[in-house]
Amino acid sequence: MSAFERNRSFTQLIEFEIEPRQQQALVSALVEQTERLAQGCGGFLNASVQASDDGRRVLNYLQWQSREAGEAAFRRFESGEQDFWQLILTHRAKTVSFGSFQVHSSIARSHDDALHCHLPD
């Protein structure tokens, strides 16, 4: 892996397909879990929990400074330290899809309303 690839941030996307009556409870549980990750895992950059309008899907977006940081956090999920598998069972997820992505560029609006593009070093 080149230095350029190592310096790219790393994104994990976890999509849950659920019954609409489970959506709000799952969103709340993921928000709580994401807050614990932000406090307890090194390399955390940002995250969001998103709910579909039809009530059938929830997307958890997690961004890390590196692939290693993201994978270490996921190992905490697998070991039960963050109760991830219990979360899936409790909220009766029909399917759970995982995706991992290297960030090649990002664009964001700053507090002064300017757009900033970031390309990894």
Automatic annotation (TrEMBL):
Keyword Oxidoreductase assigned: yes
InterPro entries: ABM_dom, Dimeric_a/b-barrel
Sorted UniProt keywords: Monooxygenase, Oxidoreductase
Domain of life per record: Bacteria
Signal peptide segment: none
Keyword Endoplasmic reticulum appears in the UniProt entry: no
ABM domain residues: 10-73
One annotated GO molecular function: monooxygenase activity
Protein name: Antibiotic biosynthesis monooxygenase
Annotated organism of origin: Pseudomonas saponiphila
